[in-house]
Amino acid sequence: MCVPVGALLLLDFEEVLKEAGFVVLAVTSGKKAVEYLKAAESSIAGIVTDIRFAESPSGWDVARIAREIDPEMPVVYISGDSAPDWVSQGVPKSIMIEKPFVISQLIVAISQLLNDRTAGAAALE
Fold first, then answer.
1. What are the structural domain ranges in the chain?
2. Which of 24, 29, 60, 80 could disulfide-link to 89, CB 3.0 to 4.6 Å?
3. CATH 3.40.50.2300: does it fit domain 2-124?
4. SS3 letters across 68-105
5. pTM, to two decimals
6. Mean pLDDT per 10-residue run, the chain (125 residues)?
7. CB-hemisphere CA count at 13 Å for 28?
């Protein structure tokens, strides 16, 4: 699970997601997230991304790049002010969580998308 978010929230999210059983690769920029996504050995199962970073690319861009690499990549967006743009900017079958939120919302969103992906893959077998 790649989690590109702001540095202040990063430690909290990383700790809670690890406690929930996820393997977490935490980064503080969209650029770093894209580097990991494009790495030849990347085994990222899904992403949680803030929308706004100090520099490009945005969370919207990170998610689009992730979906170019893996069209079924689970994507959870986190934002304090960009939720209205989700319909036009977000990738299909993603989830938007608005700040402030309780951490259980994040865990449920990630789990739902990962479970949906697993169920879809099993149905194709």
1. 2-124
2. 60
3. yes
4. HHCCCCCEEEEECCCHHHHHHHCCCCCEEEECCCCHHH
5. 0.86
6. 54 86 89 88 85 91 95 93 94 94 92 84 55
7. 8
